[in-house]
Design brief:
This is VWFA domain-containing protein. With about 375 residues, the protein is of the alpha/beta class. The protein is built from 15 helices and ten strands.
Length: about 375
Amino acid sequence: MSLTVTDPLERWRLLLGEAAQDACGGLGADAAAADAALDWLYGRDSDLGARGERSAERSGDMSPSALTVPDWINAIHTLFPQEVIERLETDAVERYGIDEVVTNLEVLQRIEPSQGLLRAVLQTKHLMNPEVLAAARAIVTEVVRRIMEKLATEVRQAFGGTRDRRRNSRRPIASNFDFKRTVATNLHRYDPASGRLYLQTPRFNSRTKKHTDTWDIILLVDQSGSMTDSVIHSAVMAACLWQLPGMRTKLVAFDTAVVDLTDDVADPVELLMKVQLGGGTDIAKAVAYAQGLVNNPQKTVVVLISDFYEGGSEYELIRRVKALTAEGVRFLGLAALDASANPVYNHETGQALANVGAKVGAMTPGHLAAWLAEQVQG
């Protein structure tokens, strides 16, 4: 049974928060429990004091001890209706990063799959029992499907060849639409009275495939906790590249150890479930491993996805990247690989990598696909 508050002053007190305590008076037992559950979550906002919703100084009182995550979940299911519960649980995970919420089976079965939820699952899967883990895997599968659906299209477009404006195509594909020739072909259908041009015969360019030799694409992915979004998109990107002809894709995750995940590259869900987020960072060791994978430097691209905060030897890192670029390897250092491409990284190390021949920046997965296509088709 959910909470019902009939006293108008209590309702205003719950709505306005602690700042309305003096004006609205105290709360009954049930309303106070609801207020405590809401405050446990939304009291994390850092600007409550600035907005006057919380007094600058809080004194000790006789209120119950702080809620734990399981206590909070149980409380909101007792106090609130279903639509409120779903909003609270979503905010807990996506707005405040309270990842422990997703170790609860009922929450996982109910909450809408999202990338924020996927991030939380990856960070807490080691805490899950088998039943919860099975529900979590279903969420990972759905979110990966959504990301892959979009990214696969971007990869296909990037590697789809160049438009040949000298030849027509009978395939009506929007990306091949020839605007100038369409207008020229249909000029006789222009209506001066309405000022409109009616198209009867649209024109499309065909595409010419450039011959490409087999290329090796080596993705080195920093699996420290701050790189979670990049790990997710790297796994999906690797699966998309693996499907392309003429490409050998390898995926290597690292912290202070190096793990070659290439055997699972065709299954990004399985791959993500094997990733162990957190730990230190030894980028030089990962680059050394990549060096051992290079057979044809002129046909190899190494993509290092990291925040460049080196826990190992920075000298060794720079030395190895310099050796790779000197041999002809195309080396790309990405400070972020996700939909927003907002980089947070060690600028000094990034500049040092650029100084020895690496390209350094941040990209969305679609831009990475276009960049790779330029390298292998250029």
